[in-house]
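Standup notes
- DV: blocked on the single-chain target, sequence here:
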Amino acid sequence: MSDRAHQIATRVENFVRTVVTPYEQDPRIDVRGHGPSEELVSEMRAKARATGLLTPHILADGSHLTQRETAIVLRASGLSPLGPVALNTMAPDEGNMYLLGKVANPAQKERFLKPLVAGTARSAFFMTEPAVDGGAGSDPSMMKTTCRLEGGHWVVNGRKTFITGAMGAKIGILIAKADDGACMFLVELPDPAIRIDRVLNTLSSAMPGGHAVVTIDNLRVPAEHMLGKPGEGLNYAQVRLSPARLSHCMRWWGAAQRAHEIASDYACHRESFGKLLVDHEGVGFMLAENVIDLKQSELMIDWCAGVLDSGDLGTTESSMAKVAVSEALMRVADRCVQVMGGSGLTGDTIVEQVFREIRAFRIYDGPTEVHKWSLAKKIKRQTLHRSGRLRRV
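- DV (later): unblocked, structure below
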């Protein structure tokens, strides 16, 4: 690991622990799932900017840290649920910045990527569609949102749901289906043709703008705002997919680590039945299991990051990491609540919020079961191929 990554991560950790954590009880956070207010986001980002830590995973020349370097920086940013928001390492912006850095042309980078990196704009990724419409969820082939070319504009119609950060976003990345296949567009927001029907009340309260249901009614997008060519939209989604899955693992690892620290401190000071909680085997063993799950998750993240750094898309590896890490961190968060008893159920510490957020993380970027199903299909293909070769021998 490079010295520069360690130095950035150390500074990020110190910033989160000393500057960001006092905001965790701020009344400007809507706990119904609508997240921190724009005022709070701007206030925290101003402090990160003043210390030179805003968007720490992207260097001054526009280049990115490697994925392994990004891992230790984003894990540090995740030590508070507000850390990624304050530092501009949160989803979906972090994934959108990565995608635009790889795919956008110079004019698109100037217009759409630059304000994201500067932290002056938030973005949303419009892909998932309502189940009641039979639209795309984990299966993008079910996409119902359509686009057609009219003169120098594409006209888009459809509905999207669970769109993180849509309320208040200034930039949108939108996927729709044309005759040639899926297309990906860059959209300036707000736009009267994109109507936010409602912001859902969810378990997650860390994301500014919440998670929205939107209707797209005759949205006109200039042709030059298409990413790439018609029919290439899902290819670009794949470019974004694996790093975005993995960065979720990085950030929530930090949150689980912090919850473990709080639960450990509680167990080492709270007495029950004549001794400290940590000295009761049932409690001490839970904390020991946390350490094991955290270390295994850390190693899984670094392994997958190494695959991505080799230039591989890492689709299978990121699926494996997403399943293993999300399930392990859920166990960690659950044990932290259990160790703290009634205190773990309250908002007096972030343990309760971390439990909620990591439960939602098990759904983000594909639920565990979808990833296992995809991995099982690959196992079947490989096994039948291998069996066929053996029979021919």
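- Follow-up: Residues 3-90 form a domain with the Butyryl-Coa Dehydrogenase, subunit A; domain 1 fold (CATH 1.10.540.10).
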